[in-house]
Write a structure and sequence with these properties.
The protein is an all-alpha fold and 659 residues long. Helices cover 68% and strands 0% of the residues. The protein is built from 40 helices and no strands. α7 packs parallel to α10, α10 crosses α13 and α30 runs parallel beside α34.
């Protein structure tokens, strides 16, 4: 690098300033004199005559600040103030879009040395960071990241700039927030673009990643900044997609191309792949945190192009097992159904959660009509890769939340529904959970119920009413309850059908039907959602059998099943917390009592359940005018069904898709 002209060197030699005097014999004791001069004469310090001497002085100061004891002592002075002032001046001279002048190289030289000095003096020294913040050094530092020379000469300019941001922001909340407010996140994301990998830029990426992690450490503050800058999230996702595509290309190269790539790595003395993987990890997790914190940011990504990018990233992680960890065995513990079940691949899990979060927004519903995205989801649901099928089912379930979309999907794409049913019955845990959630949504609108029955869904759901995977069990019970309110006969038949194989596998009597296993699950579970949703299904069965004649009542009575106990429990114990469910149970109990006979002593069963509880529970209060009990007049109509459908949004049964 050409630092100065001959005339300028002669000017330096003929000029006698505290800076040049100190350079002849640099000592820590005389630093204060030099710094004071720079503060009092900033314009002269960066003039063409003195700029090189000033840069050399900062180089010396940066080297001195490597010593922890020295930088602690210098932090008590005005070094940070002088650094902030001169950084602001030189950034103004080199700002983005400025033309290169005759003294451009000298200004770049000064910029690098000032940044090195800020980087070293702020390392584990809060006093220096406080002075930088007080004198506007953080704002000037953020602007320095946008200078064109940062990426014209990644080493040393970008190295010094991002190193300074890293040290200033490390474990200092005020400085970090000031850098975020000064829009320092944007140039970090721009730096991690594949098209900027030339000139050895990849060697600076670890610094950029660490610095970006610092700036996004407070996820709430970062999310607020992303909300205020609408294009930031999409730029981060674009950078992540580019890096993922580059890694996929590197993994697929062979022969001569691979040999050339190895030679490039040897010449650069750096591992480009490691730099790409580090940047990929940083972008993924910071974006995931921001999306989890802010619905506003999720709305910014409700476009098909962004959804395609997220699925491309997920496909890479599924294929590679993630950049730093292999795929683990299937988890044995069920997770909350508001999230995708874990895959043992943290990066794939994070990407799937981003897909679910974005597609769960109401603004994303319009993406259902995008033919390209729709075909991609259908194709992934039909393939044999369970992780991609699970993500597709979750996304499709979110996009098909309206009755119109559910009906359209059921009527015009039965092959897709059939694929979801196949995953529900025999897939891995996570894809069973996702597919059953999609199918549960499809069973809500009345026009789609008949098609679900035609495709054999009631029998599959009945086989899962007592599965050990709680989210899948909840979805199976919900499916049957929805189908019972509209397609009562095939639903009740599926619940009463004998399945020796199923019962035998679970160590139960071979003649036990799905309804019996449901009653056992409701009686034994301590999960409120399963107990309440299961009881609602029992109530629906009682009304379907005795009001709608969905099956021969004698067939149900011959089994000796205790339909009364769960209904009474919900009325007496859970009714105060779930008044709407209490009303449904009261209607069902009324139906059962009215249908009592020698073969079905339901009335006696109600009395037996209530008597032991009388002393402890007391009497059940009368309903108020604001809380009427439906079903006082028992008629064979669909009023109760409509009430149950209206209450779907208020049930305690978990929904697999919405956050």
């Amino acid at each position: 690098m050409v630092i100065s002209t001959k005339a300028q060197r002669e000017g330096d030699a003929s000029s006698d300033t505290p800076v040049t005097q100190w350079l002849d014999a640099p000592t820590e004791d005389s630093v204060k004199t030099v710094v004071t001069y720079m503060l009092e004469h900033p314009s002269q310090s960066i003039s063409s005559t003195h700029i090189v001497a000033t840069a050399k002085a900062f180089k010396q100061l940066a080297d001195m600040c490597r010593d922890p004891d020295v930088r602690t002592r210098l932090a008590d002075g005005a070094l940070a103030a002088a650094s902030s002032l001169l950084l602001e001046r030189v950034v103004a001279e080199l700002g983005p879009g400025t033309e290169q002048s005759n003294g451009h190289a000298e200004h770049v030289f000064l910029l690098v040395q000032v940044l090195r000095c800020i980087c070293n003096q702020s390392a584990d020294t809060d006093a220096a960071r406080a002075q930088l913040l007080e004198h506007g050094g953080t704002a000037a530092l953020a602007r320095a990241l946008n200078i064109d020379d940062v990426w014209r000469q990644p080493v040393p300019v970008a190295q010094a700039a991002f190193g300074a941001v890293l040290n200033v922001s490390l474990d200092h909340k005020l400085c970090t927030q000031a850098l975020v407010d000064a829009c320092a996140i944007e140039p970090h994301i721009s730096a991690l673009r594949v098209h900027g990998l030339g000139n050895g830029a990849h060697s600076v990426w670890p610094l950029v990643c660490s610095s970006l992690d610092n700036l996004c450490e407070d996820a709430e503050a970062a999310a607020t900044h992303f909300e205020q800058h609408a294009g930031l999230a999409s730029n981060m996702l674009q950078a992540l997609a580019e890096i993922t595509a580059q890694l996929a290309n590197i993994a697929s190269v062979s022969g001569e191309v691979a040999e050339q790539f190895v030679q490039i790595k040897e010449q650069q003395d750096a591992d480009v792949t490691a730099a790409l993987r580090g940047a990929q990890r940083t972008l993924l997790w910071n974006l995931c945190e921001v999306l989890e914190k802010s619905s506003v940011v999720r709305l910014q990504l409700c476009e098909p192009v962004y959804m395609h990018q997220m699925f491309d990233i997920l496909a890479y992680y599924v294929a590679t097992g993630g950049p730093d960890e292999p795929t683990q065995p299937e988890p044995s513990v069920a997770q909350p159904p508001s999230r995708p079940l874990p895959q043992g691949n943290r990066n794939a899990d994070a990407t799937a959660q981003m897909i679910v979060g974005v597609s769960g927004e109401d603004a994303a519903l319009s993406m259902f009509d995008d033919s390209g995205l729709q075909q991609r989801l259908f194709a992934q649901l039909a393939q044999s890769e369970s992780a991609l099928a699970a993500a597709a089912a979750l996304c499709l379930g979110n996009l098909a939340r309206t009755d119109a979309h559910c009906t359209q999907l059921a009527e015009t794409h039965p092959d897709v529904v059939q694929a979801a049913i196949a995953w529900f019955e025999s897939g891995e845990v996570r894809v069973r959970h996702a597919a059953s959630g999609l199918l549960k949504n499809l069973c809500v609108p009345a026009p789609a119920k008949a098609r679900m029955v035609e495709l054999g869904l009631p029998a599959v759901a009945a086989r899962n009413v007592d599965t050990a995977v709680v989210p899948v069990q909840a979805n199976a019970i919900g499916i049957l309850r929805h189908l019972a309110n509209g397609c009562a006969e095939p639903t009740v038949q599926a619940l009463l059908a004998q399945e020796p194989g199923k019962s035998q596998d679970q160590g139960q009597d071979q003649d036990q039907c799905a309804l019996a296993r449901l009653l056992t699950a409701v009686r034994s579970t301590d999960i409120d959602g399963i107990r309440c949703e299961g009881t609602r299904l029992v109530a629906a069965v009682a009304k379907a059998v005795y009001l709608k004649r969905a099956c021969d009542a004698q067939d149900l009575e011959a089994r000796g099943l205790d339909l009364v106990a769960p209904l009474v429990r919900l009325v007496v114990l859970d009714g105060q917390r779930h008044p709407l469910l209490q009303q449904e149970s009261l209607v069902a109990l009324t139906v059962l009592v009215a249908a009592s006979s020698d073969n079905a002593p339901y009335a006696h069963a109600v009395v037996r359940c209530l008597v032991p509880e009388t002393a402890a529970v007391g009497t059940v209060s009368e309903p108020t005018e604001d809380e009427p009990i439906e079903g006082d007049t028992i008629e064979a109509n669909d009023a109760d069904d409509e009430t149950a459908e209206a209450d779907d949004a208020e049930t305690t049964a978990p929904d697999s898709f919405t956050n």
